[in-house]
Amino acid sequence: MAKIEIFTKATCPYCHRAKALLNSKGAAFSEIAIDGDAQQREVMIARSGRTTVPQIFIDGQHIGGCDDLHALDARGGLDPLL
Question: Tell me: the pLDDT tens digits for 23-64?
């Protein structure tokens, strides 16, 4: 089973869409909420090079954000990673 990490904020609609896609696939993931957590936000930025949420990692590989995750799924690349 893949190790999936997703950095999120509670009020982020893109975070909810990304989690909904992963849930629809039955994929278990660790959610790392960065709301008010400057240290976790810095970890996310250091790992992804991006400041926006969500940031998604599968087995340590940076997938990107919500649109990146959906695009990966649309071209059939997500299921093999899960």
Answer: 999 999 999 999 999 999 999 999 999 999 999 999 999 999
d(CA 51, CA 26) in angstroms, rounded, equals 27
Q: What CA–CA distance (Å, rounded) separates 45 from 1?
A: 26
> Residue 41 sits in which domain range?
4-81
CATH label of the domain that carries residue 24: 3.40.30.10
If one counts the domains in the chain, the total is 1
3-state per-residue secondary structure call for the chain: CCCEEEEECCCCHHHHHHHHHHHHCCCCCEEEECCCCHHHHHHHHHHHCCCCCCEEEECCEEEECHHHHHHHHHCCCHHHHC
